[in-house]
Amino acid sequence: MHILTSASKLCTLLAAVALWALSWSPDLARAQTPAADSGDVAAQRRELRISLAEAMRIAFQNNLDIRIVGFDRSLAQERVTSAKGRFEPFFFIGIPGATGINPFPGGAAFGGGGGFGGFGFSDIQSPASTALAGADTVTSQTGATLFDFQQTLQGGMRYDVTYNVSRTDTNSIFQSLNPSWDNTLAVSIVQPLLNGRGRDAAAVDMLLAQANTVVSEHAFRSQVEAILLQVERAYWQLVFAERDLAVKESSLQLAREQLGRTEVQVEVGLIAPVQTTQAEVQVAARETELIVARNGLEDARDVLRVLLRAEALPNGWDTALEPTDEPRIEAAPVDLQAAIAAAMEKRPEIDQGQAVIEARGVEVRANQSALLPRVDLLAQVSVNGIGGDRQVRQGAFPGQIVDVIPGGYGDAIDQLFSFDFTSWRLGVNVTVPIGNSTAKGNYAQATINQDRARVVLERTKQRVILEVRQAARGVTAAAEAARSAAKTRQLAERQLEIETDRFEVGMSTNFEVLRFQDDLAVVRSGELRAVIEHRLAVAELERATGRLLDKYGIRIRSASERPS
């Protein structure tokens, strides 16, 4: 009797298995879930298969954050251009009809020059106050022109080349040349001997701007590395989202298969109908998880699209980015000392800190010069020449004009360059500040800022070493975690396989099979996450050692290399 009962159960079980197999044949499964036309989907989404190296290159060229931080570098370079303007020469010519003062140094340096300069005309009439005026009413018409070329050199010296020419026509009988031409060519220099001497003092603004440009170059590289690290993170997050979606799809398929097995066993009376509800709930839950995973995949694509600048992609925001790189585990151990040495050589923050020290040094040297008295050497050499119509008089004074010897501007020029009438001046101006508190305070502040920059650099080096050590440990730990996760996933797959076999022969429950399916889904996602975390840890180590750009062949051109 017992043998007959066992045989009956076995036949029933075989019938259930046969019914399940028929109901879940590949043809029926395909009929229930028709596949979309892959060509139509590709046409709608315009997939862009992209490697990580390509993503980094596109981001470097198009990323808006990189463009924004690039403006700071450009501004720093333009500040150098502005500072150089102080040492550019300029040419001065008077304006017709206006008067002016010889700007430098014929008047300013030596107190000469007179009150009329520039380029203009005058007509003066004045009553005679003495017999020596030359007429009862003295009239004179004068036209004068001043040409002035000036420049301050980076060493502090200033030079000035002036040429002043005037033509005067008067009725004074004492003027033997009428109309007369008078021209003067002068070369003047002012050279600081103490305060303001040397490039560090005279060109402090330009030197400081140049130093700050170097600082901005290293800051730009640091910011670019941080942004490209975001790109790599976004890329691997997209890989995770795609693989995790596949895990959720596989989990849903397992739940549907379990529902089919459950329905067959309920139909043949092996299990209670309530277990069908249990399986249906699990299918619904996994369908929800699949919806969430699909949404997460699109979110991950959007994040990467933004970093690559979506508008620059082939189909804009509708471009379906498909990563092609496989997340692999790097088994090679990390050489910690070599990694730290590379970071000390390549990290832009360290170069930036050194550049800041140099910039503070410029301020120290400039303010140190300001502590000294102001001693300026002044020198001027000038030549003169005159010409005009010479009036020949005869008889008692003032005599009658009996002849006029023609002359003019050419005579004045000839006499000027004969160097027969040369004048020179030499002097020293001394300014001694009493107290000089401002200069002392500025020098003290500059020294403190330089000392602070040195300490900041030391702190930066410590932080870099800490980052490298942590990143190296992170790579090792992530690799071990990924290997452990792979073993766990293999065991979970084997465990589900065993439990499914037990369910099919009536030795397990639907609840247990579904629980093991859940465990497998979690373990598969965990393994994928562990592999992605390992890739992110490797990327962080590359950034910490300053080799992220080199790894992907990205070279940042300096300001001097950029096209104007």
What is the structure about, briefly put?
With about 575 residues, the protein is an alpha+beta fold. The chain has helices at about 1-25, 25-30, 40-45, 50-60, 65-85, 200, 205-265, 275-310, 335-345, 350-370, 410-415, 435-505, 510-545, 550; strands spanning about 50, 90-95, 120-125, 135-150, 160-170, 175-190, 320-325, 375-395, 400-405, 420-430. It is about 55% helix and about 20% strand.
What is the C-alpha radius of gyration, as a whole number of Å? 46 Å
Helix content: 55-70%
Structural class: alpha+beta
Number of strands: 10
Main sheet summary: 8 strands, antiparallel
Total helices: the number is 14
**Strand-residue proportion:** 15-25%
Spans where pLDDT lies below 50 across 5 or more residues: 1-44, 95-117
Distance, first to last CA: 101 Å
What is the 3D form?
A: elongated
Give the overall pLDDT as a whole number: 81
Order of helices and strands: HHHEHHEEEEEHHHEHHEEHEHHH
Oligomer: single chain
What does this structure look like?
The structure is a single chain. This protein has 564 residues and is α+β, with helices and mostly antiparallel strands. Helix content is 57%, strand content 18%. The chain has helices at residues 2-23, 26-32, 38-45, 52-62, 64-84, 199-202, 204-267, 274-308, 336-346, 348-369, 409-416, 437-504, 510-544, 548-551; strands at 48-50, 90-93, 119-127, 137-152, 158-170, 177-192, 321-323, 374-394, 400-405, 422-431. The strands form 2 sheets. Strands 2, 3, 4, 5, 6, 8, 9 and 10 form an 8-stranded antiparallel beta sheet that branches. The chain has a two-stranded parallel ribbon with strand order 1-7. A hairpin with a 5-residue loop joins strand 8 and strand 9. Helix 1 (2-23) crosses helix 7 (204-267), helix 7 (204-267) packs antiparallel against helix 10 and helix 9 (336-346) crosses helix 12 (437-504). The longest helix has 68 residues, at 437-504. Mean pLDDT is 81; it is low at 1-44 and 95-117.
